[in-house]
Amino acid sequence: MTSPILSTRLDVRGITADEHLAFVRRQRSASFLQTPAWGRVKAEWRHESVGWFRGDELVGAALVLYRQLPRVKRYLAYLPEGPSIDWESEDLAAWLRPLATHLKGAGAFGVRMGPPVVTRRWDAATVKAGIADDAVHRLGDLAPTERSHGGARVVAQLRDLGWRPQAVEGGFAAGQPQYVFQVPLAGRSEDDVLAGMNQLWRRNIKKAAKEGVEVTSYDGAAIEPELKTFHDLYVHTAERDHFTPRPLSYFRTMVDALGSEETDRIRLYTARHEGTLVAATIAIRVGAHAWYSYGASSTEKREVRGSNAVQWQMIRDAIAAGADVYDLRGITDTLASDDPHLGLIQFKVGTGGEAVEYVGEWDLPLNKALYKAFDVYMRRRG
């Protein structure tokens, strides 16, 4: 939708979770981090659903997470991968200024958001060539396959409106990835997607089938009996790959919250070989956007290629559900041969998809003194 000139003033106010969910259901794509259920998952944040109204018509929506400053009743208002508004508008001020007014009234000293707007894309062949070239260290060193004029326009407008680009950072604001890897699915069959994968991926998918790897998916109430099994393997993966795992309670909350919106919003997949669990994943879908959210794999029996088998089944199910994109979530922008994240990028590149850069996260200070104190606090933490 495009609205160069807004004929009616936009107002922002709180909406119910049901109103918010009804709006999300009308969208072709919206981040699962912008569903009302996600507010229940992030229990350490206060949350609110807000809507943009043109007259009585709800034309935009967002989930806002409020994180309180230590010892002060003021908040950072965070809109992860949102809001869901008309980002093609020539007048983003008409959308963002009433949002800032509403959030300031709710006690926010600053706003952080991650517009779901793409700036550049690199196809798999380009990324693969970059990895093989010692002179290339980052995605930005490569000419993009596609450059978005709309993305450039959004960046320019945000700067003009006083928003500040942020480096992705964890902890207080739990920043979302600016670079992701996606497999386009719109208009493609299973055979088309399989043909687009590299030889190693196709060979591994065939090997898993030949070895008798069995992939099973679960949704709704059927997930709960398998969730502890998934989590045990996930903790094993965390110990092997040196990251801090989330507790089982987090996944139970996530399954319960997201599953309450739609039966097939969240699905658990397991890959077993001769009864032994070799891989397990969690997939999420909102409208036509499907995500690979969490994954785990066994150190044993890696030769049966359970990880490839379970990914292929998730892709097939996304195609069957009419998804436009299969999103493997975050990657780093580095292509250097000595970077420890390179193996993850190489695994994802094998799917034949594309590296995608979003505009990233942006901050708007509402109380300059408190925002400056927050900024200093975050820098010291970093």
TrEMBL record:
Pfam families: FemAB. PROSITE patterns: FEMABX. Keywords: Acyltransferase, Cell shape, Cell wall biogenesis/degradation, Peptidoglycan synthesis, Transferase. The keyword Acyltransferase applies. The keyword Cell inner membrane does not apply. Belongs to the FemABX family. This is Lipid II:glycine glycyltransferase FemX. It comes from Nocardioides hankookensis.
